[in-house]
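Dear support,

I submitted the protein below through the web form. The confirmation email said the job was done, but the results page showed an empty box. After a refresh the structure appeared. I'm attaching both so you can tell me whether what I see now is the final result or a partial one.
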Amino acid sequence: MTEMRFYGTALPNAEIEPYAGKLIVIEGTDGVGRSTHVALLRTWLESIGYAVLDTGMTRSILAGRGIKNARTGHTLGRLTMQLYYATDLADRLENQMLPALRAGFIVLTDRYIYSAIARAVVRGADPDWVRAMYGIALVPDAVFYLRIKTAEELAARVLASGSGFDYWESGMDMGLGNDYYDSFIAYQKLLLKEFDRMTGEYGFQVIDAGRPVRRVASELRRAISKVIESDKIVESDLHAGAVLGTKEKDAATVKIEEIPKVKTSETGIAKESSKTAP
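What the results page shows now:
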């Protein structure tokens, strides 16, 4: 069981109690392969017997559709964008993630508050204000940051996928370049710098995402195995301690019972007293 810890103030009416599941975050910039690895991890975890919930930004019932609709245009304000993302998180946390964690699920989330913070900060938002807004977030059991070395490598991946550059994920609203490619490179460089800054602050476990998918997936499985097995180790240690304590107690009882009992009687004591009396 894991104690609930939040980065700030928990959601109103949230039941603060230990949970049996694990919250595992897969973070990284655009085009780094997060969704691919979340899908691979879900398949693997379910194959070894774990119940899994996978979630991610903009997937809430309350705000997800609104965010997607707003992103189809180019007029979404920066403050409105951040409030939308915070609402999305609050809804998913209350109605999806916390219930699943209490039920013992492994919750895999494709991005968490860190992407939202990075996007807000590079757009000029006050870092303290943004972090305070996301104080409702539950501290995860592990955060794996899929890091890639250069923005140029990210751009090559986007082009190879055939999906093209997204207006917002290229930072076109920030006026960083004359075209999508130049703007994407400049924007992703800012995000990479912000993620590197947050690595120490939030304890990211950095995974080199520049390698083939199979090698990255293998490293993620090894690392996550340690996270999900940690409770079993603790429970095993507690059980062993309880058994040891019982055995020590039983041994002490045996030693006490082995001590010879001295039979006395009022008559005997009287006789002894009469012998020693003057």
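Response: this is the final, complete result; the empty box was a page-load delay. The domain at 22-235 is CATH 3.40.50.300 (Rossmann fold).
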